[in-house]
Design goal:
Largest interface: A-B, 39 and 36 residues
Radius of gyration of chain A: 19 Å
Oligomer: homoheptamer
Number of strands of chain A: 10
Helix content of chain A: 40-55%
Strand content of chain A: 15-25%
Strand order of the largest sheet of chain A: 8-1-2-9-10
Shape of chain A: globular
Distance between the termini of chain A: 44 Å
Largest sheet of chain A: 5 strands, antiparallel
Order of helices and strands of chain A: HHEEEEHHEEEEHHEEH
Chain lengths: 248, 248, 248, 248, 248, 248, 248
């Protein structure tokens, strides 16, 4: 049976419903929203973990430094998202609150997986209960748990996996190919940042200005959410662009 | 797939639902409401922040000074809106209450971003829960936080960005072109007001009488919501109109 | 796109829904109900404020003096309505309760704008929440706040404006033309009543008997809801009719 | 636009919805139910107030004296109804409870208007809230307030008016013509009863047996709900019938 | 307009909805369920009151004496039903509970009318609230109040009347004709039982075995719910059958 | 009117709705589910009561002794079901809880009818309330009350009857014919078991292996839920099969 | 009647609804989701119980050891699932919580059947209540209760059975054939693991790398959830593959 049939017969017009071949169409459509979102990349390595995203700012009147696409959940946990930004914010604020409550209650930092599970459970609920739509957002959540860097991806279904390196958004497929070839677990944080920027340059090309990049790292030892400074990012971007030009 | 198909197949007739290409059509229609609303302009500069709106009063029996399209959220925060006015009022009153509660609870003024996030979260909720429609309104929210002027725009989706200068409503595109060309961060509040009035004159033309303009500024130093007095506004309008005539 | 399309495609059959061009059709239909309602006129002047309405009693068995279309909200506030009368009553009783509660709680009279905002907020809610229809009623609310007469109009959307003089109901457009030409802010209450009665005569013509008119004034100094006595009203009506006849 | 269109397009299949010309069709259909109900008549005069109804008993096995179509709300208040009888009972029992509560709380009888407003408000609610249908019943409510007889009629919309004399049900129009011609405010209670019975005879003709008539009066002085005794009613009916025959 | 139209246009597919001619179709369909139910007969006379029903047992494996179609509500009140048996049971259990509560609270037996009104009100509610269907059952409720026998019938609408004698179910019309001809208020309980059995024989004919009859009487003096013993019933049935045969 | 019409017109697509001929179609469909369920048989006799069911295990990997299709509600009460097994489990667990609560509260065993009524009432509710579907299950409930064996059957409607012997599920009609011919109230428990097994053999034939049979008896004197041991069952099955072969 | 008809007539577009032939189509569709899930195998033997699953990881960037498809419910209970993974997680977390609460409350381990019943009841609820969809997941739950190994399977309906050996997911049928032939109750845990791996190799073939297998055993004596170490698994997989190659 072809997708067109499903549409004509209305299986995709109620959230909490299976199509005759066992699919949840509303959830599949939500994933398409994610595929149209801006690209975000996460890389785990021994030294720590990095997130690097395309802010995709096209309006020049926007204050670029105000646009943060990478959110601090806790000192040791960062998150980014592709898809409906306001959906992402709801999930991020929930995670921030949960992390804070954990710290107050147990006097110890929350582990990354607990944050991921909480977000994933809320997402699952929105695929099963009537009167709600699925969240139109995939997220990369990166953290250091007891000196181990961890990177998770969760999609609109509420499924999550741990990754060595991952990409979400419009350039997901292209970036993952690059990551697969060039990611090494023993790379340094600096090398990971370079790899991520290179992947963005490859997919966005010349449109990628410094204002569009948001990049954050957390070192395994320090466990501190740190934004990469502009100077350094500028240098890395310049190198990546010149390298890309040579290839042609 | 073309929009017409979506309509014929009913994807736009339930709020909490994705279309097969991952869009939330009801939210997109709500944005059209905003595009039909009267124009509102916000400009941030070092000296402070200004909001300037077309009240679009056409009924001569209305008491023009009673029509305020720029609302005081707190001493240091102002807001304006385009779209369904009664929707805007609900959000403004909520923001006023939140600001007041913050003052009473913490004995310090609320920061602008907290107000923006609260409004944006309510808007997001109305795009995800059944039985509610999205808010048919975009807002400009301007405030001074610790001597820094900030200007935010939030749309029916619940997304928000910080802007150097921004416009919403029917003349959004034309005004933003003007702002992009002529906005400078080191302009004075007086220059910002002139720029905003000029932009309104350019788009509304001779129909723009003094009664249709509402204009408010907050100085970085004083942090006081202040309406521009009629005399001054009259002078600026006259200049802008004469300038516009010369151009022809 | 033409209205017919909207109807065929069902955008007007669920309240909390936008049409593809960004309209809330159920709210627009509710406004049509108002346009079929009986005419009501409000005039503000220095001496105070008047409301004058066509009771539109056609059934001769009705006790005419029992039919009040102008409601006392508080000593200093009056209201009238066009559209679905039972909808209006719900709003009037809510306003009366709110005014009473204010008096008891703060030991001072409520200001007119607070009453207006409360009614408008309830109306807005009924345009956004599923399971409720919009209120099919527009209202004129007139009051004296600290020696200043104020006249507000609120429509089914929940929007409100302050007017110098206003009309609602079937003859809205004709009456507003008359008001625009002949209203002066320095007219006396007596002159305002005459203007209102004249406007009713012009639109209803000979069908306008004394039994059909309800007229109330509140003087700026006394702040007392007062019904115009029959004798006076009779005289004014006679004059207005004879004047109207001369014009022909 | 013709009613047929409304039906074809479904505007009459959801209660809380306006048709494009601003009508609430479900409420209009409920009024048709009333027009098919048995006739009920109320007459106010100086001496007091009377209600007279056709019980429309056709089943000879029914115990006629058990069928009361005129209900005692309180000592000084009576009510009757046309339309869906079980709907009427719900409203009558609510009114009886409200009257009783008032007596207990304030140690004084409730005034008729309070009873009427309470019923009318519930009716209005059922025209605005989803998940409920309008009440399919019109009511005549008659009472003596501080020596003044009052007669109210309320319809499915929740609108009410005070009448000198009124009729509801299938013969409404014919009876109201008779009332308009022959009602005088200074008629005695006996004359009022005769007028009501005559009106029933005129419309129901020979089918009107004594068992079908329910008739109650409340005297202004005594304020006591009193059923007219069978003997008297029989005599009046005989006279009315003979008079009717002469006219032919 | 013909019923077929209503069906085609969907007026009968939502409970709380009027058709354009003011009917509640779901309630009318519920009445059809009753018309397909087994026949039940009630007769009031001076000596007391009887209920007699066809149990309509066709399955020979059913324990006939376990099937009671006449329920004891209280010592002095009995009830029977036609239509959906499980619906009837819900109403009977509610009535039994109400009677018990009354006895405990007031230390006196409940009157029959209170029981009837309570059942009728619940039935009415189910014709007005969304999310519930009407009760598909008519009931005969018979009781002795202060030495007066009373027999009530209530239908799916929630309407009720007091009867001298009444029938519900498939043979309603035929039985009522017999009752009309032969019922006398001064008949003895024995004569009433004979009349009821005769009516059942006339309509069910030879299929009416002793196992299918349930018959209960309450004497005005004793006020005790009593089942007619099998021996007596057998004799009456035999007589009735032989009489019926002679008529042919 | 034919069933097909009902389907085309949608009367069977909302649970709480009557069709124009007064039927509840969703309940009728639920009964079809029962007719496709595995066969279960109950027989009451003086010595006690037996239940005997086809477990219908076809998957050889299932642990046959773990499959109990006859459930112990209390020491003296057993139950079995045909239709949706998970629906049955919900009802069985509810009954077990109710029996336990009764024992704790009153220190005496619950009677079988109370258990039956509780299950039947929940079933009725699911045929009247929106948002729930009818239970797709019929049950046989067997118990000993004060030395009297009782066997009840309840269907998806919530109707129940007491039986001498009964069958539910796919072979209902065939088995009931056998029961009707061969059941005697004075048969022993052993004879009842043999009769039930014989009926299963007749309808399931050679497919009926010992693993598929679940058989329980409760003696009137001991009031103890007892499973028939495999050895005995094996012998009875062998006899029944050989007898069946002879008949051919 | 053919399935196509059901679809055309909409019986499969509301969860809580029977089709005319007594089926719950939404539940049947949910079962199809399970049939598309990755294969999971459970085997019970005297020595204990094993679960073995295909993790079906295709993305090489996923951290394979982080993907656990077999979940620890308690020390002595393990579970795995096929179908929608996020649905499974909700059920697993519920089971873990229930097990923990049992330990705290009764100071003894929960038995496996209690865990199974709780999951099955929640699944049943989601097939009967409106506003929820069925869980799109089948589960294998394995535990040791008082030295007895038990293996249960529960499907989307909420039905469960105890198995000697069972498979769910895409290769269910093929694997069950293998299990039926080769399973013996007296096999050792090692033999059971080999049998399960062999079955996976047979169905997945060369695609089955060591990273895709998750395998857990619980010994009857130790009652400890234990993951099979990679070394051992590697060896078993190598053997199974070589054996498979020989067969060709």
């Amino acid at each position: 049976m072809q997708p067109m049939n499903h549409q004509l017969m209305g299986y995709d017009r109620a959230i909490t419903m299976f199509s005759p071949d066992g699919r949840l169409l509303q959830v599949e459509y939500a994933k398409k929203t994610v595929k149209q979102g801006s690209t975000a990349i996460g890389i785990a390595c021994k030294e720590g973990i990095i997130l690097c995203t395309d802010k995709r700012i096209v309006d020049k009147l926007v204050v670029p430094e105000s646009v943060e696409k990478i959110f601090q959940i806790d000192d040791h946990i960062a998150a980014t998202a592709s898809g409906i930004l306001s959906d992402a914010r709801v999930l991020v604020e929930r995670a921030q609150l949960k992390a804070q409550q954990h710290k107050v209650t147990y006097d110890s930092p929350i582990d990354t997986l607990s944050v991921v599970k909480d977000i994933a459970n809320l997402k699952q609920l929105c695929t099963q209960s009537g009167g709600l739509r699925p969240f139109g957002v995939s997220m990369l959540i990166a953290g250091i748990d007891h000196s181990t860097p961890r990177l998770y991806e969760t999609d609109p279904t509420g499924i999550f996996f741990q990754y060595k390196a991952a990409a979400i958004g419009e350039a997901e497929t292209e970036v993952e190919e690059i990551l697969l070839k060039e990611h090494r677990e023993d790379m340094s944080i600096d090398e990971a940042i370079k790899l991520a920027v290179k992947a963005l340059v490859t997919t966005i090309k010349d449109d990628l200005s410094i204002e569009r990049i948001d990049c954050v790292f957390i070192e395994t030892t320090k466990k501190e959410f740190t934004r990469v400074n502009q100077e350094k990012l500028n240098k890395i971007l310049a190198e990546a662009k010149s390298e890309a030009r040579k290839k042609k």
